Amino acid sequence: MAKAKTQFVCQNCGYVSPRFLGRCPGCGQWNTLVEERVGAEKENHKARVSFEGKRAKPQILSEVDMSEAPRIKTGLKEFNRVLGGGIVPGSLVLIGGDPGIGKSTLMLQISGQLSETKRRVLYVSGEESAAQIKMRAERLHVASENFYLFPETDMTNIQDAIKEVKPSFVIIDSIQTMQEPDIQSAVGSVAQVREVTAELMQIAKTNNITIFIVGHVTKGGAIAGPKILEHMVDTVLYFEGDLHHTYRILRAAKNRFGSTNELGIFEMRESGLREVANPSEIFLEERLKDATGSAIVVSMEGTRPILVEIQALMTPTTYGNAKRTATGLDHNRVSLIMAVLEKRANFLLQNQDAYLKAAGGVKLDEPAIDLAIAISIASSYRNIGTDPMDAFVGEIGLTGEVRRVSRIEQRVAEAQKLGFKRIYIPKNNLQGWTPPTGIKVVGVATLSDALKRVFH
Ligand SMILES: Nc1ncnc2c1ncn2[C@@H]1O[C@H](COP(=O)(O)OP(=O)(O)O)[C@@H](O)[C@H]1O
Ligand SMILES: [Mg+2]
């Protein structure tokens, strides 16, 4: 086959050049020219033809065959949940994350489990040799007859391998190492990544093959430069976590087949990723019972409540401006709550350094954590401990009111389940439901009200 011609197209104004130019003559922008295939438009208008030569045709909705539709469950329940209840056959899923976070490990484990359901899995790796993958597979106890390994980066060979093996699942590890030989741009460039993804999408949709694409996130937080892949795939999952902690969080950023609020928690072990069924326990396990500056919040991560300890340490400023640091919490949220404490509850915090932290390496970002932040600051500032069996939920407004939060029943039930004896919640959240037995529910209307009750 003759080499396809390519051209460079400005992504800003559409200017076309046969060569790469640093600056677009059309609009004057720098680095906007990206290599594309000549006639790519026309090619895209060709009918979608599967490997078996089946052509896509318009169908009446009521006659669409759904025999393949049920979701496929993997052995990792957390993974199923994040996907919205299991894998949708024929979908294209992107798994993004920092290098070393465990994307290959996760995909290898998933592949192993999928191949045990008698469906074929093709694992294409552009990063490791077959021997290296085998070594890891042995450590993770992954082995199966239906599991095919293919160390390759050339898309033409990968297409051939898919035709030959006829897998139900394909893993591409990673998109940044794959290349379309017709495109001259470097491996990992925007042009290559886009072209390869478009090709994979075509394969997935016309042959009903589920494809998982692993993508490294660059420092700026984007996958391969701009987030060019997100709109092309069905589902985008991010695998994140602190490399210094063993906990990893899988989060859906986009999902055509489910909610994006779901989140799965895993622990990285020698034998691979283990799912954490009760995340609250891990975030509370190291808590000191009689410490000051600690408050437990019931935060919602998607549809699931987790209990997290919020810690505050207030110390007098020794020189210069007061320091404010927040780890795992939004800096602005902390500043705002400190300002409300000053203005509405007469705390003198200007000459105090404040260090705040959500324990366990989680990131919390929802309004309901406000009350716990305020209580932990007050507890450290006054050097009075809080009751270790208390939990706090509530948003704080600028006038010092404690505002209603969502999903109160679930939050209270979770606190009760984990043995907490009392929970402070917004007064407006008291109506319309019956609290479970075994936990005292205290409604508070304002921040001063809450402080008075907590610290008598
Ligand atoms: N023998 C081992 N025991 C425990 N953890 C390991 C071992 N080998 C590798 N790991 C973990 O696996 C991680 C690398 O995972 P990997 O799936 O290759 O990441 P990615 O594909 O996202 O770059 C390492 O950061 C380390 O935490
Ligand atoms: Mg990897």
From TrEMBL:
Ranges of residues in domain RecA family profile: 68-217
Example GO molecular function: damaged DNA binding
Record CDD domains: RadA_SMS_N
Keywords, sorted A to Z: ATP-binding, DNA damage, DNA repair, DNA-binding, Hydrolase, Metal-binding, Nucleotide-binding, Stress response, Zinc, Zinc-finger
Pfam families (UniProt xref): AAA_25, ChlI, Zn_ribbon_LapB
Keyword Nucleotide-binding part of the UniProt annotation: yes
PROSITE patterns reported in the protein's UniProt record: RECA_2
Region (Lon-protease-like): 353-456
Residues that span the membrane, as ranges: none
Motif RadA KNRFG motif in this chain: 254-258
Positions of ATP binding: G97, D98, P99, G100, I101, G102, K103, S104
GO cellular component: cytosol
GO process terms (BP): recombinational repair
Family: Belongs to the RecA family. RadA subfamily.
HAMAP family hit by this protein: RadA_bact
Domains as described in the record: The middle region has homology to RecA with ATPase motifs including the RadA KNRFG motif, while the C-terminus is homologous to Lon protease.
Function: Plays a role in repairing double-strand DNA breaks, probably involving stabilizing or processing branched DNA or blocked replication forks.
Protein name: DNA repair protein RadA
Taxonomic source organism: Pediococcus damnosus
